[in-house]
Amino acid sequence: MRQLGRWTLLALSGLAALTLAGCATMNVSSHVQQGIDFTKYRTFDWGPADALPTGDPRLDRDPFFQDHVQGAVEKGLAAKGFKRAGDGTPDLVIHYHANITQRVDVNRLDREYGYCYDADCLVRVFDVEAGTLVLDIVDARTNRLVWRGWAQHSVQDMLRDQDRMAAKINEAVGRMFEHLQRPDMDARPVSARTGAH
Amino acid sequence: MRPLGSRAALAAAAAAAWMMTLGACATMNVSSFVQRGVTFTQYRTFTWAPAEQLSTGDPRLDNNEFFEARVRGAVERGLAAKGLELVERGAADLQLHYHASISQRVDAGGADRQYGYTDEDSAPSVFDAGTLTLDAVETATNRLVWRGWADGAFAGMVDRQDLFEKQIDTAVARILERFPVNLR
């Protein structure tokens, strides 16, 4: 990171903003406790269910959505070498939260990418239902957050289509876990990660 | 999006990102409010008031302990540099609160004009802007004696933890520049 120029970093952050605004692609990132070593953790379990509203009645207490997120997260954690704690004393406690917010998108990408010139460019303003899935990993012993991942995507076409929602949840959780660095497991082939545990 | 040559696309994206970011960075707006008639040199110690449960407006930052620790750390260092001491709850002269708020804003094209990127008509854009507010409440009277805030289009940086943390440090440092006393 250090050797990258300042402008490169600024450009990248601008790109992130652009991507978020565009909503055409899924925006995935994470925050992590500095210096965390995930190899010292072996087991996980789910924390108490999230009581915060999602911001959308179609998603609140939707068992399909909850089941699918939990299944995808458990699969992802297994691939990272974590086992579900059987005795109620996990090393890691997992929470997730889903949120849907109404946002406005102004489509000015056509202009920026040179598809049109000044007067020819039509400004299209439209509402976007922006969904965010946040996944928290908490150290059970210290009760401190050690990792937070999130994925953001427009959800309007998902809420009517379970298959699409399932596919997007899988993509969201899969890409989030790419951000969780666990060198000992990440080096192994995918096929070897889940089977042995 | 139609396919483009990768170099052209990269150059266009970088230019657009640069413009957006420049606009964003150039406009971090910092200000403060001071209760009249208060002698700030009487305050020697501060503590954190119980954390508030208000939403930031951005699910990435709600209950985000990394974000909270970064803000608190920057404030604690900044006030220590001014000679104020952090103490346990209750016994301090000042109680600190902070609040972060992210909201979507629409720019009707004014920024482009202002920075001279376009001649006349500019396209509107939307961006995430954030405000970080720091309040100092006098413990003895429970009244607000100082409020400082920084406002800017920094939310695009949330996804880049290292950049975001630097931005928090900058915002807090600039807010605390306006804190009216330096005991050192």
Annotation keywords:
heterodimer; A: 197 residues; alpha/beta; Double Stranded RNA Binding Domain; 6 helices; 6 strands; 28% strand; globular; B: 184 residues; 6-stranded mixed β-sheet
* Strand percent estimate of chain B: 25-35%
Mean pLDDT of chain B: 82
**Residue share in helices of chain B?**
25-40%
Content-based structural category of chain A: alpha/beta
Share of β-strand residues of chain A? 25-35%
How far apart are the termini of chain A? 35 Å
Oligomerization: heterodimer
What is the fold-level CATH name, i.e. the topology of chain A? Double Stranded RNA Binding Domain
Overall 3D form of chain B: globular
Which regions of chain A contain 5 or more consecutive residues with pLDDT less than 50?
Answer: 12-23
Largest beta sheet of chain A: what is the strand line-up?
1-6-5-4-2-3
The SSE order of chain A reads HEEHEEHEEHHH
For the secondary structure, the number of strands of chain B is: 6
What is the terminal separation of chain B in angstroms? 57 Å
The total strand number of chain A stands at: 6
Q: How would you characterize the overall build of this protein?
A:
The complex is a heterodimer of chains A (197) and B (184). The model of chain A is unreliable at 12-23 (pLDDT under 50). Chain A is globular, with a radius of gyration of 19 Å. In chain A, strand 5 and strand 6 (144-154) form a beta hairpin. In chain A, 34% of the residues are buried. Chain A contains six helices and six strands. With 197 residues, chain A is α/β, with parallel strands linked by helices. Chain A has one domain: Double Stranded RNA Binding Domain (2-Layer Sandwich), CATH 3.30.160. With 184 residues, chain B is an alpha/beta fold. Chain B has one domain: Double Stranded RNA Binding Domain (2-Layer Sandwich). In chain B, helix 2 packs parallel to helix 4. The N and C termini of chain B lie far apart (57 Å). At the A-B interface, helix 1, strand 1, strand 4, helix 3 and strand 5 of A face helix 1, helix 2, strand 5 and helix 4 of B.
